[in-house]
């Protein structure tokens, strides 16, 4: 079971949500200002939540790991996760969203570090990818140390390896 109680940083902590915290997920995904640069608003009706929760959070399908990001006032400010873990190649896809009103406070960078520490050191991942379509996301991943693997007119594929992450942590 992938369940963790909480991983603490200096500005934020991440934790897997309880089922009743999915209202925040619905709010986050439905907020136009937050979602317009990551592909648009996503509806999250209550009838879809139980299936999604079992796949992504508890007990999880072993390929997905999802956390909410909380600031030190215990206010949810976003989400961070990995998806579609391939156990043979030890790779997954990365996701992070910070609610628009909380951006620019360093929450995203620290949440990335907390999730990747779990992914590389505890979960056993070796590489993680993220397809990014927006300028802010591109800048955040580049400033964190992700490498560009592939570039098209509409998106950039970023990659972080365990070796690179360990190197960045030591810097």
Automatic annotation (TrEMBL):
Keywords: Transferase. PROSITE patterns: GNAT. InterPro entries: Acyl_CoA_acyltransferase (IPR016181), GNAT_dom (IPR000182). Pfam families: Acetyltransf_3 (PF13302). One of its GO terms (molecular function) is acyltransferase activity, transferring groups other than amino-acyl groups. This is Acetyltransferase. It comes from Clostridium tagluense. Residues 12-163 form the N-acetyltransferase domain.
């Amino acid at each position: 079971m992938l369940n963790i109680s909480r991983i603490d940083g200096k500005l934020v902590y991440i934790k897997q949500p309880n089922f009743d915290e999915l209202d925040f997920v619905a709010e986050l995904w439905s907020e136009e200002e937050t979602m317009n640069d990551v592909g648009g608003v996503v509806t999250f009706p209550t009838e879809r939540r139980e299936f999604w929760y079992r796949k992504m959070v508890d007990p999880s399908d072993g390929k997905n790991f999802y956390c909410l990001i909380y600031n030190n006032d215990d206010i949810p400010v976003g989400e961070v996760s990995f998806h579609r873990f391939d156990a043979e190649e030890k790779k997954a896809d990365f996701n992070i969203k910070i609610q628009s009103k909380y951006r620019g406070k360093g929450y995203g960078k620290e949440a990335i570090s907390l999730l990747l520490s779990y992914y590389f050191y505890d979960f056993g991942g070796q590489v993680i990818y993220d397809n990014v379509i927006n300028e802010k996301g591109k800048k955040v991943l580049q400033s964190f140390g992700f490498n560009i693997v592939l570039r098209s007119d509409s998106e950039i594929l970023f990659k972080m390896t365990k070796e690179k992450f360990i190197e960045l942590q030591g810097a």
